[in-house]
Amino acid sequence: MSAAVSELSALGLVASRGIERGAIGRTATIYGIGPGAGYAIGIDVGAAQVRAVAYSMDAQKLASAEEPIAEAIAGDADKVGAVVLSVARATMAGVAKSFRALRAIAVAVPRIVSNDRFDRPGGPSAVLGLLRRSIEVPIILENNVNCAAIGEMHFGAAQGHQTFAFLQVGVRVG
After folding, report:
1. CA–CA gap between residue 102 and residue 138 (Å, rounded)
2. What angle do CA 52, 55, 73 make, to 5 degrees?
3. pTM, whole model, 2 decimals?
4. In the predicted model, is pLDDT for residue 116 greater than 80?
5. CA–CA separation, 62 vs 50, rounded Å?
6. Is the pLDDT of residue 29 over 80?
7. Per-residue pLDDT at 132 exceeds 60
């Protein structure tokens, strides 16, 4: 076990989080996910702005960025895609160098996301074209209300609940 932990530690995949002493027996070193495991970025593409946040694999917030979407370009998938790429790059630049491995990007859009609608001109997938060509990691596209519900389940009011309902009321109801 020591050899395996040593190897994982040398790669930065695990890191010591401290020691714990029991009433009897050896002192235990507690390990957690290390910075070499990388990070992921979540991007929210709204009607008026794009926001992104980067988290380590152990849910530590690393960086964030946001940029408005000018009203004049809101209907142009390529120009909105350029804003998405700009925010992704700014978020990546804000991540410390020790978290060098970007593992995935999840993009939330205020549209229905389904396989039969992906490749339509101007559809949700069209906004990701530039991002997919520029950053070579898995990119997940999902509906923003679904993403918000997952966020509440992990970090918000639904934390620890097996069943909950999430309702978003805004420009549309989701």
Report:
1. 10
2. 10
3. 0.80
4. no
5. 18
6. yes
7. yes
DSSP the chain: -HHHHHHHHHTTSEEEEEEE--SSSPPEEEEEE-GGG-EEEEEEE-SSEEEEEEEETTS-EEEEEEEE--GGGTT-HHHHHHHHHHHHHHHHHHS-TTS--EEEEEEEESS---GGGTTSTTSHHHHTHHHHHH--S-EEEEEHHHHHHHHHHHHSTTTT-SS-----BSSSB-
Residue with token string 């988290």: 55
More confident residue, 68 or 114: 68
pLDDT above 60: residue 150 = yes
d(CA 110, CA 148): 11
Between 22 and 88, the higher pLDDT residue: 88
